[in-house]
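Technical note accompanying the year-one report. For the benefit of new consortium partners, we illustrate the data format agreed upon in the data management plan: each record pairs a sequence with a C-alpha cell string. No post-processing was applied to the example shown here.
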Amino acid sequence: MDRRLIFLQIGVIVNRPGSRAAQALRHSSRQPVPQAALLRRAACVLALSSVVLLAACQKKEATAPALRPVVATAVQADGRPSTMTLPAEVQARYSTPLSFRIAGKIVERRVRLGDTVKSGEIVARLDPADAQKNAASAQAQLDAAQHRLVYAKQQLDRDRAQARDNLIAQAQLEQTEDSYASASAQRDQAAQQAALSKDQLQYATLAADHAGVITAEQADTGQNVSAGQAVYNLAWSGDIDIVVDAPENALAALAVGQTAKVTLAALPGRSFVARVRELSPAADPQSRTWRARLTLENPGSDVRLGMTADVALSGSATQPAVASFTVPATALFHDGNTPAVWVVRSDDVLELRRVQVARYQERTVAISDGLKNGERVVLQGVHTVTAGEKVRVMAPLHPEDFAS
C-alpha cells in the first residue's frame, strides 16, 4: 500500500472525533508535556494504526476442501483363461400341479412336502358326501329308465303280435315303437349320467399320476377348494434339468446340442456334463436374459432338486479365452443393470467403468472385460462416491481381507 495513503489514514484516525488519539492530543495541548513523552505517544499511535491497516489490507485465503479417502488397489490379470460361468439351479424336467377335478372340502392329506410318491398313490381326499348323493340319485334315475325300457319293450312285442293278426291299427304300432325308442334313449342318458356321477365320486380322491417328489403344498386340511385349484406340486422322477438365465454374450455357447460343465456347491470336487436341450427364443422383458434348459447326464441320487449350480460354457468360437481380473465382491457396483466398478484415474478422479463378469464366487468376482493391468479399483464404499469426484487413495488396512 502507498505510504501517502497510510499517513492519510493515520491522520483520519487521529483527527476522528471521540478517538483516543484525538483525546490524547487535546489533553496534551492543555497541559505541558515533555517532548520525549510526546514522541513516544506519537510512535505508539503510529504503530497501532499500521497494525490495523495491515490487517485490513491482508486478504483471507479460502480453505481447500479435504479430499475423500477411498480404499483402492491396482489390479493385475491373474493369468487364468476366463471361462464364461453362469449361476443356475437344479430342477425337474417335468413339474405339474396336483388338483381335484371337482370342488369340495379337503378332509385328508396323506403326503407332505418332500415326500416321494408312486404313480397312482392317493395323496388327498375330499368330503365325498355330496358326490355319493349325486351318484345314488343318478343310479336311481338309471334304474327307473331301465324299468320304463323293459315295459316299453313288452308293449312293443304285444303290439307287434297283434298287428300280425290285424287286431290293431298300424298307427298304434308306430306309436308303441316310438315309445320304445324314447325309453331306450332315456335309459342311455341315465346310464351316462350315472357313469359321470361315479367318476365325480372317484374325483373326490386325488392320486399322483406320475412317480416323483412333492415340492410344494398349496392347500391344507379343512380348506374348501375349487375344481382345478392346486393342492400339491409334483416334480416327476427321471430327467433333471439345469436351468440358467443367460445374458446376450453367452448365447453363442448355448446352442441346442452343445455341452457344458456343471459344478454343484453342495457336491464340491465333482463335475457333471449337461447338454443344452432348450433355449428360449426371446429375452425376458425384465431381466433381458434368455432362459436355457440343460439336461444333466448321469446325475446320481445325491443330486437334489433346488441345488445351486455353476455352468461353465465352452466351445464358443465367438468367446475367445482372455485373462481375467479377480476383485473382491465388495468392489462390484451397477450402472443401471450392467455390472461396473469405480476406477481411480491417474489424476485421482473417479470414473464409473462398465465391466463384464465372467464368474461369481463366494467372496470375489472374475472380470473378463473392462479393466487393464495396473488400474486402481475402489474396494470399499462404492455406494458413497460419485463420478468425477477427486479422492485420496489409501491402501487396504488388512490386505488379506481382499485376497482372492
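Partners are asked to follow this layout when depositing records. The mean pLDDT is 82.
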